């Protein structure tokens, strides 16, 4: 029997149990709901939970153990047995509300446990595979090496038989693109938040804020297309035109360099990533600024300060911890971005501070190393886990710092 058929059958049985349970308690109290301990809906929910709960647990166990039709029959039988048990216990003295709330509390606890166990599993897999990688490549060489060429030869006489696993070029590329992205997102997002919270009227805010947040719903691959097909050629044309004007003059070297600019560069990826982060920064900053007590604004205005002076000298200093946390969260988001960098920044690992050069990042290299059929027994493939663990540690540290700042901010104004 198909799983979907079984699930539909369980839904039908649960709905029937709910109806019968509710009808049974109404009949037991002769249509006077106040005579029962709980509302009729709780008795129906009690019967429905006993109908669906044990059966779902058996189905999950069957999926984990690779069970067959016998498990399906057992699940349906347990559903009918649970319905019969629950309906037989329904009486006015039954504390149905408490029983239902215990079921709900157990479900919430299971969801929380699943989230925690998933996190533990992710960290454990990263640590285990990274440990295998660091057995072949020393951690200091990985963290401080300046050459990245994760190629392992098939024969001892081939070139690059040892490979190069220095991740510093990847860290530099990631940091460079993140700086460019934040240089775009931080001022525009913060200024947008200030305008929406302090200057825009309710009608204009109701229109502008949703329009601004539409950017948050655009898939990152679409931003990648935009960077590769629109922003990249636009930037290249502008820099090439500027370079042609400088060639032959005192800035001839700069002009020659600008003439060699291609579509893929760190500036393109960072600029488009910054556009992607604008609604993220703006929404968080707007909520933080609105959380500043109105009494601080009123006191400043009462002292004769203008609205601009109030924003600059009162609102922003009060909101600074929260805004800082929002910026750190945006940095974490920028560090973990993949598609835009893959399509707009290139794949060349180099140590450079020039935004017009092609660079690569940690996330792009993880995708590159794990693309295609791979065997997890060589340092080349296991390097992806070393990069993933490093990225996880960095983003975790940024998130912890941001949460600590937010907690301090909330304690100050709650």
Walk me through the structure.
With 414 residues, the chain is mainly alpha-helical. It folds into 2 domains: 3-110, no CATH class; 164-413, MetI-like fold, CATH 1.10.3720.10. The protein has helices at 3-28, 40-65, 69-89, 96-136, 139-144, 168-199, 202-213, 220-246, 252-259, 266-290, 294-302, 307-335, 339-344, 362-370, 379-413; strands at 148-149, 164-165. Strands 1-2 form a two-stranded antiparallel sheet. Helix 6 (168-199) runs antiparallel to helix 12 (307-335) and helix 8 (220-246) crosses helix 10. It starts with a helix and ends with a helix. 33% of the residues are buried.
Q: How would you summarize the topology of this molecule?
A:
Layout: H1 3-28, H2 40-65, H3 69-89, H4 96-136, H5 139-144, E1 148-149, E2 164-165, H6 168-199, H7 202-213, H8 220-246, H9 252-259, H10 266-290, H11 294-302, H12 307-335, H13 339-344, H14 362-370, H15 379-413
Antiparallel strand pairs: 1-2
């Amino acid at each position: 029997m198909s799983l979907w058929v079984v699930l539909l059958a369980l839904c039908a049985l649960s709905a029937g149990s709910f109806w019968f349970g509710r009808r049974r308690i109404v009949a037991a109290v002769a249509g006077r709901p106040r005579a029962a301990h709980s509302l009729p809906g709780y008795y129906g929910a009690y019967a429905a939970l006993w109908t669906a709960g044990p059966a779902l647990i058996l189905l999950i166990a069957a999926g984990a153990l690779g069970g067959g039709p016998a498990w399906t029959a057992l699940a349906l039988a347990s559903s009918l047995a649970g319905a019969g048990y629950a309906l037989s216990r329904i009486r006015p003295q039954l504390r149905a509300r408490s029983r239902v709330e215990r079921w709900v509390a157990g479900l919430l606890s299971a969801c929380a446990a699943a989230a925690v166990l998933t996190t533990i599993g992710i960290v454990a897999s990263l640590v285990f595979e990274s440990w295998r990688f660091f057995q072949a490549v020393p951690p200091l060489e990985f963290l401080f090496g300046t050459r990245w060429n994760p190629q392992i030869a098939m024969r001892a006489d081939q070139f690059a038989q040892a490979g190069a696993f220095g991740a510093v070029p990847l860290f530099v590329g990631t940091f460079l693109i993140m700086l460019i992205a934040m240089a775009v997102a931080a001022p525009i997002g913060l200024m947008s938040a200030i305008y929406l919270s302090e200057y825009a009227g309710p009608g204009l805010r109701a229109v502008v804020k949703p329009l601004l947040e539409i950017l948050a719903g655009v898939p990152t691959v679409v931003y990648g297309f935009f960077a590769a097909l629109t922003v990249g050629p636009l930037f290249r044309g502008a820099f090439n035109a500027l370079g042609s004007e400088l060639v032959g003059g005192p800035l001839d070297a700069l002009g020659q360099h600008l003439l060699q600019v291609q579509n893929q560069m760190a500036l393109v990826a960072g600029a488009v990533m910054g556009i992607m982060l604008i609604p993220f920064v703006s929404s968080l900053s707007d909520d933080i600024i609105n959380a500043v007590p109105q009494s601080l604004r009123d006191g400043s205005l009462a002292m004769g300060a203008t609205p601009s002076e109030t924003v600059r000298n009162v609102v922003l200093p009060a909101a600074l911890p929260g805004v800082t946390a929002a910026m750190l969260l945006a940095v974490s988001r920028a560090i973990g971005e993949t598609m835009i960098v893959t399509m707009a920044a290139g794949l060349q690992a180099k140590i450079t501070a020039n935004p017009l050069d092609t660079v690569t990042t940690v996330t792009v290299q993880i995708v590159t190393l794990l693309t295609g059929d791979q065997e997890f027994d060589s340092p080349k493939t296991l390097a992806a886990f070393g990069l993933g663990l490093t990225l996880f540690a960095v983003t975790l540290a940024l998130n912890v710092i941001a949460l600590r700042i937010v907690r301090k901010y909330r304690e100050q104004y709650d």
